[in-house]
Amino acid sequence: MEAPEQEPYPLDVEAVRGDFPILQRKVGGDVTIPGEDEADTEPLVYLDNAATSHTPEPVVDAIADYYRSYNSNVHRGIHHLSQEASIAYENAHDRVAEFVGAAGREEVVFTKNTTEAENLVAYAWGLNELGPGDNVVLTEMEHHASLVTWQQIGKRTGAEVRFVRVDEDGRLDMDHARELIDDDTAMASVVHVSNTLGTVNPVGELADIVHDHGGLIFVDGAQSVPHMPVDVGEMDADFFAFSGHKMCGPTGIGVLYGKEHVLEEMEPYLYGGEMIRKVTFEDSQWEDLPWKFEAGTPVIAQGIALHAAIDYLEELGMETVHAHEGVLAEYAYDRLTEYDDVDIYGPPGDDRAGLVAFNVDGVHAHDLSSILNDHAVAVRAGDHCTQPLHDKLGVAASARASFYVYNTREEIDTLVEAVDDARQLFA
Amino acid sequence: MGIGGGSDMYRQQILDHYKNPRNHGTLDDATFSHSGENPSCGDTIRVDVRLEDDGETIDYVAFSGDGCAISQASASMLSERLRGMTLDELAAMDTDDVTEMLGVDISPMRIKCAVLARQVAQDGAKLHEGEIDDLDVTITED
Ligand SMILES: Cc1ncc(COP(=O)(O)O)c(C=O)c1O
Q1: Contact B68/A31, CB-based, under 8 Å?
Q2: What is the C-alpha separation between A87 and A80, in angstroms, rounded?
Q3: Beta carbons of A346 and A333 less than 8 angstroms apart
Q4: pLDDT digits (tens, 9 = 90+) for A94-137
Q5: Does B113 touch chain A (CB under 8 A)?
Q6: With b meaning 16 or more CB within 10 Å and e meaning fewer, what string describes B94-104?
Q7: Of A275, A321, A262, whose CA–CA distance to A10 is shortest?
Q8: What's the CA-to-centroid distance between A298 and ligand 1, angstroms?
């Protein structure tokens, strides 16, 4: 069969792959020895980017550079290195603000990850503001980071937690959203892009509905910011969060965006050094935003590296990143739908983010992913931190392939061959 | 392939026991029954054991459940293996005995699936003998 003519990739994949040495890795040997050794013989096909993305050389360099040449605590020393580190760390906040359309650094708090950002708001805002009679509106496709957090805050405060239905196609039932969101809705927490279904949710529309009723909206951007242009001002989110490790950055850093006036009125989440202006034995005054929410020695190297990651992505162009993943998602969707016994969750191929969660009839997702692993294909298997959504889908687990700037159609072909192998083994 | 190898794990024997489970079902005249689950894969296993008149020797084992191939095949093989064994011998079975029975290397992430049935059988026996008394379902440990 002659290969059909394929449209060119929106970006230069070969050049991009050159920036990620880990993509040259071979795997398959002893997993108790980290890194490649002789027993690792199979070229890696990495399709687990929704869990964590790889780190390009300029970002690794930024981390090494920091530790090699200006490692120092921030906001404390008057000495030269501390000033260099402080300025670089503060600039990283500006860079993030610019990247997502925030007004400035005062709206950008560095956290450990998306989960911590969600908890920061739940504790600092939720525990103080919520009570019986209030409700918090979530969706059935929330990640546990948001679902578990607000569920537990609901239990502690007496606020009711409501879930907007997900329809057959994996989209939010917006009529149901309009029904659920009422004048007692104090907060809505909504995932921007579902990490399981690949659905892109109409967060701007939801923000309007919530605001009409006087509530606030928290948008979980863990799966959107890495993959598409995002403007928090345009969608009018009150809070917005994402993680560095899913967008070419390091682990250990996440971002909480908050509207300045909302953050201003909030109590701190953690107390300690760095976040205070003046302390007496009796009382303390808080530092300005965003430092009020960054207690203790912050994520300095990670913040600086996140700056480098954003530079890297913007050099590629977020529109281009999005377009590249769109090509791959549609290709994967089309190839997997060739098999009648493969079930794919979520909306159709031309209307989804760059990930595909699926099951093969008669093959448990963990067996499937073990077989894919044998083909050196890395995918996620399990519930992807959306257990209630999996319950609703009627499956215990699924396999998920997720794409990024360095993935190719050939890698998806390898995935499909491996899936076919699993089908045949279990037939 | 090495330690993480999927196809290695799915040798014919495992697939055969998964597709054609032996001793599948429940026993009306079981001496004891016990259930367990492995939350990491969502596997569930129930084991029914009938003892001989000596109260020590395993006469017959049936299992039922749902889950990945490793957990279900392991239960099927165990149901054959246990016949004629004593409860003491069952209690002495360790993880190596299970992997030896399966005849394949099980990757570290999947060990819990492999040992679920053994653990359920062992806990069932302990409950029967009164060595423990407060266990509802066995949950595979980390
Ligand atoms: C949609 C979504 N929200 C939140 C998270 C949590 O991110 P993290 O583990 O970095 O806190 C993830 C990723 O795991 C995600 O996909």
Answers
A1: no
A2: 11
A3: no
A4: 999 999 999 999 999 999 999 999 999 999 999 999 999 999 99
A5: yes
A6: eeeebbebbeb
A7: A321
A8: 20
Distance A115 CA to ligand 1 centre (A): 6
Distance (Å, whole) CA B39 – CA A386: 14
Provide the CATH topology of domain B6-139.
Sufe protein. Chain: A (3.90.1010)
Are A283 and A101 contacting, i.e. CB atoms less than 8 angstroms apart? no
The 10s digit of each residue's pLDDT in B18-73 is 999 999 999 999 999 999 998 877 889 999 999 999 999 999 999 999 999 999 99
ipTM for the complex shown: 0.84
pTM over 0.90: yes
CATH architecture, range A58-315: 3-Layer(aba) Sandwich (3.40)
CA of A364 to the centre of ligand 1 (A): 24
With 0-12 / 13-18 / 19 or more C-beta atoms within 10 angstroms meaning exposed / middle / buried, residue A79 is exposed
Q: What is the largest CA-CA distance in chain B?
A: 47
Interface of A with B in 353-412 (CB under 8 A): 363-364, 366-367, 370-375, 382, 396-397
Find chain B residues with C-beta within 8 A of A371's C-beta: 6-7, 10
Kind and range of the H or E run holding A332 = helix A318-336
Describe the crossing of helices A57-65 and A300-316 by its angle, rounded to 10 degrees: 150
Q: Is A248 a catalytic residue?
A: no
Of the candidates B19, B40, B110, which has its C-beta nearest A370's C-beta?
A: B110
Is the CATH code 3.40.50.740 the one for domain A13-54+318-426? Answer: no
- The neighbouring-strand residues paired with A355 are A402
- H or E element in which residue A310 lies: helix A300-316
